[in-house]
Design a protein that fits this description.
The protein is of the alpha+beta class and 540 residues long. It has 20 helices and 18 strands. The chain folds into 2 domains: 49-56 and 73-208 and 370-446, D-Maltodextrin-Binding Protein, domain 2 (3-Layer(aba) Sandwich), CATH 3.40.190.10; 211-366 and 470-480, 3-Layer(aba) Sandwich (D-Maltodextrin-Binding Protein, domain 2), CATH 3.40.190. The chain has helices at residues 7-13, 18-23, 107-116, 130-140, 156-163, 168-171, 180-183, 187-190, 217-222, 232-242, 255-265, 286-300, 315-320, 333-341, 382-395, 402-409, 427-432, 453-466, 481-503, 511-536; strands at 4-5, 33-34, 89-95, 120-126, 146-149, 194-195, 198-199, 202-205, 211-216, 272-275, 278-281, 326-330, 350-353, 365-366, 371-377, 416-419, 422-425, 470-471. A 5-stranded mixed beta sheet has the order 4-3-5-15-8. A 3-stranded antiparallel beta sheet has the order 12-9-13, sandwiched between helices.
């Protein structure tokens, strides 16, 4: 158990911070707040949903179930009627997309409310504005019934203790079986919800596969290139063979993610490495020096786009329109690239490249986080908490159910049409179903792409190849106050420094000063906090 601090003491120590401002309304005294420590409650039982058999079975190691088509007769998710009957439920969450029309102009949203049995009132905040909006709302103390909490939110143990409901009695161990679709969420995702020894939130599950080195298989095929290099030397030659600078075509875009891919070849740390309870940051490892030198060679040989070091936010477009042939991006990008770029790029085909060992043999693959963020529930009477949990359970109804089909694809004939048994969004559906239900909570991800069922086989094959070589980030789900406050700014500084090395502006020896800066400005404090939390366990 870590040090204890009173709510008023926390406010004095962190004047101006969002959580501290909110705590001012809680009065003096109150129970002491544990700032660190492992879970004392059991994590929820994992009870996989068995209602719809996949075409391509997932595995316990994190390979997702694959479905080539939606069932012609979806399984009824709520045979006993609307699951969340009662007063309306307000939720504040974020979106990466344009905000959809409100319920009065959105038949999809009204149908979702009808299915739930309550009015789901979602305040939708653009992702760039969410941290500041969250701070203002928490500081004001007038909270919605539930709100998304990012991993970067500060003073989490104190904030959860003061403002949000401890859900342990409702969700720990076998208690979660009251909410079978929440019980279908894999255990790893729940690690993000544990604070102060209890379960304080609901996860937003994501894929273990994390990011992928996508490649334009159509370009590789037209040049008769083997997209499975045996080592870095072959990868480098492959990049040369797929490049055509005279026609503004290059192998690679983002230098940072290219470095990550080379780190995977080297079996490098996935941001952090843990050995016997001691933590090492990836920039402190020997592998990073070899990776930076390798990317510097690729840069010197003009295998990266000439604007790779001077622009931000163009890499997806370069990949989609064919200016680069390889692009390291999130798992969800696979379907998104087809939807965004296939219309204007006939013949576009995409696959995933697994990192080979740098000198041959097996490489590795960095696992992604198991949850994007968490949903915390405002303190309320037990009956109200149970209603909101029933709503969250409904929002996690899995693939193959009628509820999932409505939540993701809306109303037949208006939001989607059918191609065989598969729902294809209409323009209205694309706009209306942008309601960010996946940032409330969600079902475990599945591999499904109604526009291109054949792509599912490629996705499943890639995930199966990664399963035996996954490298996890040992800090997943562990809270560090310093990381929450300082990691973003520190990463900007270190990213700029290592880009200077890869571009050839700075010598490789300058990494030593970058590491010293990282340690001095927060890295050593992060390490100490992670090690302290790790020692409190458990981590299985």
């Amino acid at each position: 158990m870590g040090p204890l601090i009173s709510r008023r003491g926390l406010l004095r120590a962190s004047a101006g911070a969002a959580a501290g401002l909110a705590l001012a309304s809680c009065g003096d005294g109150g129970p002491a707040i544990p700032l660190t420590g492992g879970a004392k409650a059991d994590l929820p039982d994992y009870v996989p949903y068995q209602g719809v058999a996949p075409d391509l079975a997932g595995t316990k190691s994190g390979v997702l179930n694959g479905y080539r088509h939606y069932p012609a007769e979806p399984a009824p998710a709520f045979p006993d009627g609307p699951p969340a009957k009662g007063p309306g439920v307000s939720v504040m969450t974020l979106t990466f997309n344009p905000v959809p029309p409100p319920p009065g102009r959105n038949p999809y949203w009204r149908a979702l409310n009808e299915q739930l049995g309550t009015d789901l009132d979602i305040e939708i905040v653009p992702v760039a504005d969410y941290p500041s909006k969250f701070s203002v709302v928490v500081a004001g103390g007038d909270l919605p019934d539930a709100m998304l909490v990012l991993p970067t939110a500060s003073q989490q143990p104190a904030m959860f203790n003061a403002l949000f409901e401890d859900l342990t009695e409702h969700l720990s161990g076998a208690a979660i079986r009251e909410y079978p679709y929440l019980a279908n969420i894999p255990t790893d995702a729940w690690r993000w919800t544990v604070r102060n020894g209890g379960i304080y939130a609901l996860p937003m599950p994501r894929a273990n596969a994390g990011s992928i080195m996508f490649y334009r298989s159509d370009r590789f095929k037209e040049r008769r290139l083997d997209p499975h290099p045996a080592d870095f030397k072959e990868f480098r030659q492959l990049c040369k063979d797929v490049s055509d600078p005279r026609h503004s075509r290059y192998a690679l875009g983002d230098p940072l993610t290219t470095c990550y891919f080379v780190m995977e070849m080297l079996g490098g740390a996935n941001m952090w490495r843990e050995e016997n309870g001691r933590f090492t940051y990836w920039l402190e490892t020997e592998e990073v020096r070899e990776a930076l030198d390798a990317v510097r060679t690729l840069t010197k040989e003009q295998l990266l786009h000439p604007d790779a070091y001077s622009v931000v936010g163009k890499f997806k477009d370069w990949f989609g329109n064919g200016q680069i042939a390889l692009h390291y991006d999130g798992n969800a990008g696979w379907n998104d690239f087809y939807r965004q770029y296939a219309r204007n790029n006939k013949g576009l085909e995409i696959d995933g490249m697994l990192a080979p060992g740098f000198g041959g043999g097996e490489g590795s693959h960095w696992a992604g986080y198991s949850s994007f963020a968490v949903l915390a529930l405002k303190k309320a009477p037990a009956s109200r908490i149970r209603q909101i949990l029933r709503l969250a359970n409904a929002m996690a109804a899995p693939f193959g159910t009628d509820a999932y089909k409505l939540r993701k694809y809306g109303l037949k004939g208006h939001d989607h049409t059918l191609r065989g048994t598969d729902p294809i969004l209409t323009p209205d559906g694309t706009t209306e179903t942008a309601l960010p239900t996946g940032f409330v909570t969600d079902a475990p991800l599945s591999l499904y792409f109604p526009e291109r069922p054949d792509v599912v086989d490629r996705q499943h094959s890639f995930q199966r190849r990664t399963a035996d070589v996954l490298v996890r980030n040992p800090t997943e789900g562990i809270y560090s106050e310093t990381a929450a406050k300082a990691s973003g700014g520190l990463q900007l500084k270190t990213d700029d420094a290592i880009k200077g090395i890869m571009q050839g502006r700075n010598p490789l020896s300058s990494l030593d000063e970058t590491v010293r800066l990282w340690r001095r400005e927060g890295g050593d404090r992060m390490r100490a906090e992670y090690e302290k939390a790790w020692a409190a366990g458990p981590h299985a």
